[in-house]
């Protein structure tokens, strides 16, 4: 029997209806059915290893089956990063495994837009499952204009997912679940609601006028949908079971297995094991077996047959007799299907070389069981999909059991935002019946909020109460009888970046207890799934008690919500010179627990970014007793959010008509920047560390004569400051940087420019400072600074205080508030900026790239990601004080990047981030505060480039030594 013949399912009344087609995978012909996904066709043919990770050439396969994990990526006709589970087959396709080394070789065939269309409606609903459909029906019946947006090819969600176009039901066959979903979809359409399938919402925000706005990727491009109100019915995704081997090809979620078997009539393997807890796994096993697939075992972590469950079973029967009876009948159906059920049994590891070969489990008696299997469907619980909810700014809490976010919503579907509502499993797992009722209730609430006549939701409330009572009893029956296995040191936690539990535990031993620091130290959560499958497990490893965790302990919400083709978002936007400032009246929350403070110290540094850490390093080496305090762990704010450019030449807004203060402050700073880059290199060598410093030069490109003249004037000004910059022509530019667009005619080249990895640089400086005797304490937001004799009393919001003989203010954009505590107005402001990161690709950019008249900085990281910035402004959440990315800045930044480096047209945007930058006048601020000769300020808008030099100079000033160079211009005197 061929692999394909052994994996195609029959039975259940479904018959193939799609025309047979053929495509090629890794040079081998594959038979498929028109209308099925590439993932289904490859699984049917026995091809389960899809994506190459680049980490020892490991492979990954279909895992979530719903487009969230990004592990089933393939390359289609030379275009990388295509999700096999979401992409339909077509005749003659040439498909290969996705590999980072080949990503971006072929453009996606799209062009950037000159403008982004904006559409309006009354109600936008994200999702098309039970909650979304029931809400849409009631809203449309009330006369409201309703648009449902769903990423899947057909509406129905995970529960009502229809039979794929590749199959049909024979006359008189089919099941009630299919029929019920189809009938609901048809009713919604008849009522006038618009269902748009195959559309991904990648961004959400609330406009200044209070209208929710959704950024959407459609098959033919992108647009923005503005609505009076938004209902999020985004459902949930399955939590991973972090045991050794869970990333092997052939291991997938129960939902992915069900999609293959139910929608596409394909068995996940020839020998399938289903494991987890709950009735979904039982249904998956039955659907595979009924179609003729081989289910070697069903491992149930609970003990539903225990006599102690009788009361809960009775509760299920009272709440929903039909569902309870159907559930009780499943046990007999398993027996009839020949499926061996093992209760109180938990998977502990999965084994195989290139794909799954065996599943190892343990039962309640501690006995180890082994099963031969080439596919395992694991269903150990769900997590609400809250990515869009968090982007919009609605509040969430942290589930103390799992470490994952859970939305705050009331019984009517309201969130913490007045025009954002939620229904279904996206607000907390409750099952399909609860979702249907919640959709109706949320619709009534939304109509009332819009001053419209709302239907009476009392019947839906009664239905919801019964459904919730049923669920409570159900999960008493299916409560796991065994604890989830603790990850071994070798257990993979972050499948995207290859981070094992041991690396997390080692950092925990060093004192790391927050996800942000862990992410910056390991790259955990920076991959394609954006932390969906690792964040909760990592937080549980870092924190012994999650009960006190709040939203600030989670990763920041990501945009885009899924990786998207960068070119689809690229749109020309108006630009400006310099940085846009924002008020800093709300201080972001810092570390979870405040570290203890000593009673006194010699030198207190406020701020644990690169400037503060460098000050501590050099001062401690000079024998000073140094303590560094911060509300957050070291490198958490602007320094940790820096993209790592080492600037030596002026940026376009630092010279000419765009420059602050005529450009003189920025020009005077250039020698400091040059010497600081040299200091960075010296420290890298001295500390025997790898900061990933590369100085292959910087290119500022120009595309017309006016911009070329600007570059020539700028280069002359830089040479007058001792900076070696030359203007080169088109031929030399093409030789140095062939990836730069042919429209770029000349460039200013500065050989001293380059890049560094701030995620490696700052931790090494912190470690060196600690080795020299400096101490660091996080969790301390300074609330008062006051003279006390020959010292200063510094008080923090954690209820602690410390006496310091000397103080250094190195708090970046928040330095102004600290100066005000001593009656000094520091001319320092906060300017939030954002950065973009594409998927990794082959080496295409050696130099740091900037544009002569556009906001752009661009470089390629060591791991292949393109990092894109250029002072595009970010926003600020007024409730939390944290910076947040702006859709318009993402679109405009990508437009300039693609215009400058056309290879961007073939890459996907993975993520973005925002951090608070410093704005002064183009030059740093050093020296003592007026009236306070023992309090020093150290601030600069070119913070990372200047970090070690600022620290060295400030340490000298604070310890009474000669800084070794003239710094009078960089003191507060220039503002008097």
TrEMBL record:
Organism: Devosia enhydra
Biological classification of the source: Bacteria, Pseudomonadati, Pseudomonadota, Alphaproteobacteria, Hyphomicrobiales
Single GO term (MF): iron-sulfur cluster binding
Residues annotated as domain FAD/NAD(P)-binding: 122-438
Positions of the BFD-like [2Fe-2S]-binding domain: 492-543
Domain of life according to the entry: Bacteria
Database matches in InterPro entries: 2Fe-2S-bd_N, 2Fe-2S_ferredoxin-like_sf, 2Fe-2S_ferredoxin-type, BFD-like_2Fe2S-bd_dom, BFD-like_2Fe2S-bd_dom_sf, FAD-dep_OxRdtase, FAD/NAD-bd_sf, FAD/NAD-binding_dom
Coiled coil: none
Annotated FAD dependent oxidoreductase domain residues: 602-957
Stated name of the protein: Glycine/D-amino acid oxidase
Keywords for this protein: Oxidoreductase
Cross-referenced PANTHER family: ANAEROBIC GLYCEROL-3-PHOSPHATE DEHYDROGENASE SUBUNIT B (PTHR42949)
SUPFAM superfamilies: 2Fe-2S ferredoxin-like (SSF54292), FAD/NAD(P)-binding domain (SSF51905)
């Amino acid at each position: 029997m061929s692999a394909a013949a052994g994996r195609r399912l029959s039975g259940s009344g479904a018959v193939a209806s799609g025309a047979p087609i053929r495509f090629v995978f890794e040079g081998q012909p594959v038979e498929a059915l028109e209308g099925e996904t590439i993932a289904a066709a490859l699984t049917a043919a026995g091809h389960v290893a899809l994506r190459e990770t680049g980490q020892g050439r490991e492979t990954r396969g279909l895992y979530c089956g719903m487009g969230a994990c990004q592990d089933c990526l393939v390359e289609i006709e030379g275009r990388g990063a295509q999700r096999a589970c979401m992409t339909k087959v077509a005749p003659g396709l040439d498909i290969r495994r996705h590999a980072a080394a080949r990503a971006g070789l072929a453009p996606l065939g799209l062009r950037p837009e000159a403008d982004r269309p904006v559409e309006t409606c009354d109600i936008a609903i994200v999702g098309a499952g039970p909650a979304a459909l029931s809400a849409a029906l009631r809203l449309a019946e009330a006369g409201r204009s309703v648009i449902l947006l769903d990423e899947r090819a057909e509406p129905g969600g995970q529960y009502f997912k229809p039979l794929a176009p590749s199959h049909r039901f024979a006359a008189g066959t089919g099941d009630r679940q299919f029929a019920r979903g189809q009938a609901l979809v048809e009713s919604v359409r008849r009522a006038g609601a618009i269902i748009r399938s195959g559309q991904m919402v990648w961004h959400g925000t609330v406009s200044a006028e209070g209208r929710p706005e959704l950024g959407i990727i459609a098959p033919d491009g992108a647009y923005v949908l503005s609505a009076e109100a938004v209902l999020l019915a985004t459902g949930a995704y399955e939590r991973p079971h972090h045991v050794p081997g869970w990333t092997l090809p052939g291991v997938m979620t129960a939902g992915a297995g069900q999609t293959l078997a139910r929608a596409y009539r394909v068995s996940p393997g020839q020998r399938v094991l289903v494991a987890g807890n709950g009735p979904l796994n039982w249904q998956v096993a039955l659907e595979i077996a009924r179609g003729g697939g081989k289910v070697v075992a069903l491992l149930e972590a609970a003990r539903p047959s225990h006599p102690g469950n009788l009361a809960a079973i009775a509760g299920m029967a009272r709440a929903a007799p039909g569902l309870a009876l159907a559930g009780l009948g499943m046990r007999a159906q398993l027996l009839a299907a020949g499926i061996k059920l093992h209760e109180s049994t938990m998977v502990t590891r999965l084994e195989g070389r290139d794909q799954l070969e065996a599943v190892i489990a343990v039962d309640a008696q501690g006995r180890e069981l082994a099963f031969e299997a080439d596919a395992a469907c694991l269903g150990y619980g769900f997590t609400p999909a809250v990515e869009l909810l968090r982007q919009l700014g609605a509040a969430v809490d942290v589930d103390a059991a799992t470490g994952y976010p859970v939305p705050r919503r009331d019984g009517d579907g309201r969130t913490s935002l007045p025009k954002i509502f939620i229904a279904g499993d996206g607000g907390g797992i409750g099952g399909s019946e609860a979702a249907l009722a919640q959709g109706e209730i949320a619709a009534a609430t939304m109509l009332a909020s819009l001053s419209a006549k709302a239907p009476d939701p009392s019947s839906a409330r009664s239905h919801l109460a019964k459904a919730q009572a049923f669920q409570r009893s159900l999960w008493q029956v299916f409560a796991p009888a065994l604890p989830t296995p603790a990850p071994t040191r070798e257990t993979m936690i972050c499948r995207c970046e290859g981070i094992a539990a041991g690396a997390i535990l080692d950092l925990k031993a060093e004192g790391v207890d927050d996800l942000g620091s862990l992410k910056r130290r390991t790259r955990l959560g920076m991959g394609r799934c954006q932390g969906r499958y690792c964040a909760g497990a990592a937080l549980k490893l870092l924190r012994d008690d999650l009960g006190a965790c709040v939203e600030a302990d989670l990763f920041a919400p990501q945009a885009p919500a899924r990786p998207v083709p960068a070119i689809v978002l690229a749109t020309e936007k108006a630009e400006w010179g310099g940085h846009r400032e924002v008020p800093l009246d709300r201080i972001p929350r810092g570390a979870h627990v405040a570290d203890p403070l000593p009673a006194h110290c010699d030198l207190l540094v406020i701020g644990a970014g690169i400037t503060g850490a460098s000050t501590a390093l050099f001062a401690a080496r000079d024998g000073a007793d140094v303590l560094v305090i911060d509300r957050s762990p070291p490198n958490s704010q602007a320094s940790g959010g820096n993209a790592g450019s080492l600037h030596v030449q002026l940026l376009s807004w630092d010279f000419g008509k765009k420059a602050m203060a005529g450009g003189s402050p920025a020009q005077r700073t250039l020698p400091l920047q040059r010497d600081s880059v040299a200091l960075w290199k010296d420290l890298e060598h001295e500390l025997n560390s790898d900061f990933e410093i590369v100085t292959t030069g910087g290119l500022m490109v120009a595309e017309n004569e006016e911009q070329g003249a600007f570059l020539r004037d700028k280069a002359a000004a830089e040479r007058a400051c001792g900076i070696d910059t030359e203007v080169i022509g088109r031929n030399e530019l093409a030789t140095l940087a062939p990836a730069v667009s042919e429209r770029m005619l000349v460039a200013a080249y500065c050989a001293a420019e380059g890049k560094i990895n701030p995620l490696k640089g700052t931790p090494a400086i912190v470690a060196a400072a600690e080795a020299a005797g400096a101490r660091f304490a996080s969790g301390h937001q300074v609330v008062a600074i006051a003279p006390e004799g020959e010292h200063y009393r510094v008080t923090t919001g954690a209820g602690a205080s410390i006496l310091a003989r000397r103080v250094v203010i190195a708090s970046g954009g928040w330095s102004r508030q600290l100066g005000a505590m001593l009656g000094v107005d520091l001319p320092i402001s906060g300017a939030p900026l954002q950065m973009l990161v594409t998927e990794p690709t082959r080496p295409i950019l050696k130099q740091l790239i900037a544009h002569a008249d556009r906001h752009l900085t661009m470089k390629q990281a060591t791991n292949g990601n393109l990092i894109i910035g250029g002072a595009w402004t970010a926003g600020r959440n007024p409730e939390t004080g944290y910076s947040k990315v702006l859709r318009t800045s993402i679109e405009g930044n990508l437009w300039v990047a693609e215009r400058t480096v056309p290879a961007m047209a073939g890459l996907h945007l993975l993520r973005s981030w925002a951090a608070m930058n410093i704005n002064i006048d183009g030059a740093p601020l050093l020296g003592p505060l007026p009236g306070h000769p023992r309090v020093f300020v150290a601030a600069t808008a070119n913070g990372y480039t200047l970090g070690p030099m600022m620290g060295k100079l400030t340490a000298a000033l604070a310890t009474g030594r000669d800084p070794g160079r003239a710094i009078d211009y960089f003191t507060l005197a220039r503002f008097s």
